[in-house]
Amino acid sequence: MAEPALSIRGLTKVYGNGFNALKGIDLDVAEGDFFALLGPNGAGKSTTLGIVSSLVQKTAGSVSVFGIDIDRDFAKAKYHLGVVPQEFNFNQFEKVEDIVLTQAGYYGMPMREAKPRAEQLLRDLGLWDKRKGSARMLSGGMKRRLMIARALIHRPRLLILDEPTAGVDIELRRSMWEFMQRINREGTTIILTTHYLEEAESLCRNIAIINHGDIVQNTSVRDLLAQLNTETFLLDLARPVETAPELEGFSVERVDATQLALSVARGQRLNDAFAQFSAQGFEIVSMRNRANRLEEMFVSMVEHANAESGRSTDKVEVRS
Amino acid sequence: MNAWQTWIALWTLVTKEVRRYMRIWPQTLLPPSITMTMYFIIFGNLIGSRIGPMDDIPYIDYIVPGLIMMAVITNSYSNVASSFFSNKFQRSVEEMMVSPMPNWVILAGFVVGGASRGLAVGLIVTVVSMFFTDLSIHHPWVTIGVVIMTALLFSIGGFINALVAHKFDDISIVPIFVLTPLTYLGGVFYSINMLPNFWQGVSMVNPILYMVNAFRYGILGVSDIPVGGALVAIAVFIVVFFALGLWMLDRGKGIRS
């Protein structure tokens, strides 16, 4: 059986101020997977990835990358890792091309090998025309793509993306998704953290949700969504209404004069709701999910976990 | 990493450091040459002619080795301190930390890069001094050995300073309050033989005195202290400080949470 791309056992991190960021988590990511690590701010996602990429020192536990224990041979494990952090972490005054080539040098890549590889990546990520310019002149989205190019220069087998599309416009985000899906199809295992749950739902096959330093869910996206009990749809009406209609078996709220929110439980049929709307003379012109399905699941899970542990329910941050 | 990959990583880091200070040469290479020109004009030509010879050597000739060494010390130290701290501040140090590059290569890369700036500035000051006096080097190997070792030692010092620094102020404290006084009191402008016995004894605990005098011995053939002992002391300091810097890096002091 192939070694997992990433295997974590009993990973614990207690910071110097006593904050227990990770409470002995276990996690496996299979080779070739597109894996999402989700959680609210401060849940422990970046700490986990920081330990895997050597930026944070663990307190206890073990981490293996393709079977290589980082305590035994971290240098060897690092050859398999590419890391795209949340914050920009390159010298803003250096040239775009130099940033990528310097990183190749840190991995011991000869220039004759690094140059064509850098050209290919910069072209793929739409940065080739900017290669001679200073990195500080790039837009936010370009800077994120530069970090992806830098992380891929040494052909890692496992790419860690910590909120890679934060602050990136929709068009650019979609082009980055296509790029990530392509390299995943070509064999690179990807671990992604994101607050855009639509991103996790459409890209990832497996998912772990971390909250207050514990893994509260670790399953496939499909299985997770199957647990979703209720979906809420926003219905746009042809004519304004004063009050929400009463539908048998369904919950309907009036959002504003021309919009209603319809909650549909698992097992219920939308047709039944629409039949009742028609019978009461409501004309519906369009419909969409109020929130992304994974988002609903994520919020309910985190709130459920908080309630079980007796914590106050934090506001869970999601972006869609 | 095999030996060839390690060499590529080290070369990459050194060239990156050299590229950095060459890119900002008006801040890194030009100011020391202007400052030292002022020293030569004021202390060498204008005041020096009234001071008379020091250890039977014309005063301007006497101060040249000390001024070169002063430039080497301050530039080696400040280059690494500011460059590595900037890497910490901008978090670009993470580029190195996530790579398989061994910590000794990171330390050596910054140290060699910083020493190269110290030596480049030392060379510029030497060229400037030739406009004011005729230099002839009595012991070339001692001169070269001392200046290289001094540049390496203070580069390591700058690296350790940057590792423990939390803000930019922290990397200016040592150069202002430690290096500059020790350099001025290290026999750059005078022979310690001029001092009363007590202050001669105090001066002997100043490590920069040994470097300045060993370098002066290399150029002028005169020294206040035994040169062999000075060379050994500098070499020991290099080994001890390099080991300390590496120990701190291995434990992630100042760079890992």
UniProtKB/TrEMBL annotation, chain A:
It comes from the Bacteria. One of its GO terms (molecular function) is ATP binding. PROSITE patterns: ABC_TRANSPORTER_1 (PS00211), ABC_TRANSPORTER_2 (PS50893). The keyword Nucleotide-binding applies. InterPro entries: AAA+_ATPase, ABC_transporter-like_ATP-bd, ABC_transporter-like_CS, ABC_transporter_ATP-binding, P-loop_NTPase. Keywords: ATP-binding, Nucleotide-binding, Transport. Residues 6-237 form the ABC transporter domain. The keyword Nucleotide-binding applies. This is ABC-2 type transport system ATP-binding protein. It comes from Chromohalobacter marismortui.
TrEMBL record, chain B:
One of its GO terms (cellular component) is ATP-binding cassette (ABC) transporter complex. Its main location: membrane. GO terms for molecular function: ABC-type transporter activity. It is a multi-pass membrane protein. Residues 23-252 form the ABC transmembrane type-2 domain. Keywords: Cell membrane, Membrane, Transmembrane, Transmembrane helix, Transport. It is found in: Cell inner membrane; Membrane. The chain crosses the membrane at residues 29-47, 59-78, 104-132, 144-165, 171-191, 198-219, 225-249. Signal peptide: none annotated. InterPro entries: ABC-2_transport_permease, ABC2_TM, ABC2_TM_bact-type, ABC_2_transport. It holds the Pfam family ABC2_membrane. Belongs to the ABC-2 integral membrane protein family. This is Transport permease protein. It comes from Chromohalobacter marismortui.
